[in-house]
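Researcher: I'd like a candidate sequence for this fold, 131 residues long. If you have to choose between options at a position, lean toward the conservative one.
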């Protein structure tokens, strides 16, 4: 199995981590009744941790489709290489680091880590666009 698909599977696992982390903080704020209910009621603004973890999840969801296209694309196009694998690992590593940085409210380093992740995705996309 190409390593790019393993990276993608780990990315899917990381999505679960984002979902459960955000849900944990929302449940702490809004209660278990909210968590198991229909969630139809209007809620007050999210507190700091709920807001941060929800925004981190939304940010991951913005970039994950790009990762899917890139990582599956290089496998289907038979364009995998050590560079697409390195790029995939760079993306995944940056995304793992991004969540705790966002939750901790660390601004500039968080953006640098996000940029490193995008560079990793660029490394994967490169052979599809220019190879």
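Model: Candidate sequence:
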């Amino acid at each position: 199995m190409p390593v790019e698909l393993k990276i993608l599977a780990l990315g899917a696992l990381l999505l679960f981590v984002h979902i459960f982390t955000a849900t944990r903080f929302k449940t702490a704020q809004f209660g278990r009744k909210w968590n198991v209910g229909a969630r139809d009621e209007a809620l007050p603004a999210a507190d700091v941790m709920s807001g941060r973890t929800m925004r981190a999840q939304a940010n991951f969801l913005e970039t994950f489709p790009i990762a899917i296209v890139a990582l599956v694309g290089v496998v289907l196009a038979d364009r995998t290489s050590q560079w697409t694998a390195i790029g995939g690992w760079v993306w995944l590593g940056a995304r793992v680091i991004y969540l705790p940085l966002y939750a901790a409210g660390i601004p500039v380093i968080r953006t640098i880590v996000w940029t490193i992740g995008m560079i990793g995705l660029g490394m994967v996309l490169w052979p599809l666009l220019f190879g």
